[in-house]
C-alpha cells in the first residue's frame, strides 16, 4: 500500500512538473532547444533525479499540444456561453519564411482568446480564403449567432474579407482597426510645420543619448540619483504613435538631461550628419451620455422648421447616428427611442458613473428592463461590444517573431501557435485580478 501510494504521488508530481515546464517554455518564451542542452539536463538531474525529464521533441509534439488542446476546450466552452463576440484576423511571415494567419476572438469584457493559427505558405491569401478561414472558427467552433463584430487592419484583402463576412452574416458589424487610424492621424499631425522644430529637438536628444557612450553613462548616473525610472524611448517605425511615447519620455527625463548638461562632462557639440472616419466610432461617441451632455461635439444651430427636434443639442448628429442605428436594427428600432435619448428624457436621463469600467455598456444594460427602452439599449450595447482594434493580431505576430530569431531553431507555425495560446492563457490567469483596469484622467497619467 505504501509503495502504491508513493508511486501515485510520484506520478502526480511528474504530471505537475510537466505542466510547469510547459508554462515555463511558453510564458517565458524560452527556446525549446534548451531542453536538449547538457546544462539543462544537469540542473534537473540535481534538482529532481527521479523526474523523467522530457526532451525537446516530447515538449514540442506532445506536452505543449496537449496543454493547448485542454486550454482550447476551456476557451471554446466559455465562448459558447457568450454573446456579442468580436473576431479579428491578421497574417505574417516567420523567419523561416513560412506564411501564417491567426484568428483571435474577444468577448464583451475585452478578454481576448487566440483560437487558431494556420500555416499558409502554399495558398493565395485572397479575401475569400481569409473569409473561409475566419468562418471556420466563428461558425464551426463557436457559432455565428454569437458574433457581433469583425475587425482587422485595412489592407485590400482583409477589408474585402470583412465585407464578405457581413454578406454571409448580416448581423456582424465590420470595423476598421482604430489603432491604425490613430497612427495615421498622428503621422499627419507631426508633419505640420508648427511641430517641426519640437520633433527635431526630440529626435536629436534621443539619438544623442542612444549613441554617445559618455552621454549614456552620465544619463544613467543622474537618472539613478534623481530616482527617474522612465527611459528615453527611440522613435521606431513599427509601434503605433511612437512619436507620442518618445515625446513623453523626453518630457519625463528632462530633469536628468538638464543635470547631465550642468555637470559639463559630456560634449554636446553639433556635428553635420547627425482623416479617417467610421460611422461605428461616431455612434459609439454619441451613445455615451456623458458626451451628449458635454461640449465634445461641434455646436449646431437649432433647426427653425423641425419642431420635432426641440431640445436636441446636436440635430445633425442625431439624424446621422439614428440612421446608422436604424440600419443596424433592420428597421425595428422605434424612432421615438432615439429622440428620447437625444432629448435626455426618461429613461435616458439616468446618471452614469464615468469612472466605472465599461461604464457606457453597463449604463445601457441597466436600461434594458424599461418598457420605454425596448431596442435602443440593445443596439447600443452591440455597438460598444465591438472591439475596434486588431492589436491581438499584432501581439501574436510579435510573439511569433520573438520565438524565431535566427539563432534559434525554426519552429513550425503549429508549434508557435500552441506556445502563444498557452502563454496567453496563463498570462490572463495570472493577471485576472487586474482585469477591471484603472481609469485615469489623461493629465494625471504618471510618467
SSE string, helix = H, strand = E?
A: HHHEEEHEHEHHHHHHHHHHHH
Radius of gyration: 27 Å
Q: Helical proportion?
A: 40-55%
**Shape, please?**
globular
- The name of the CATH architecture of the largest domain is 2-Layer Sandwich
The number of helices is: 17
Q: Looking at the chains present, what oligomeric state does this protein adopt?
A: single chain
Protein name: DUF659 domain-containing protein
Keywords: Membrane, Transmembrane, Transmembrane helix
Structural overview:
With 447 residues, the protein is α/β, with parallel strands linked by helices. The protein folds into four domains: 2-66; 80-175 and 389-431, 2-Layer Sandwich (Nucleotidyltransferase, domain 5); 185-263, no CATH class; 279-385, no CATH class. The protein has helices at 2-27, 38-47, 56-79, 127-142, 156-168, 178-190, 196-211, 213-226, 242-263, 279-286, 289-292, 315-328, 335-342, 359-365, 376-385, 391-403, 413-430, and strands at residues 85-93, 99-106, 112-119, 147-152, 173-176. It has a five-stranded mixed β-sheet, sandwiched between helices. α7 packs across α9 (242-263) and α14 runs antiparallel to α15. The protein starts with a helix and ends in a 17-residue tail after the last helix.
Keywords:
447 residues, alpha/beta, Nucleotidyltransferase, domain 5, 4 domains, 17 helices, 5 strands, 53% helix, 8% strand, disordered C terminus
Brief write-up:
This protein is of the alpha/beta class and 447 residues long. Helix content is 53%, strand content 8%. Keywords: Membrane, Transmembrane, Transmembrane helix.
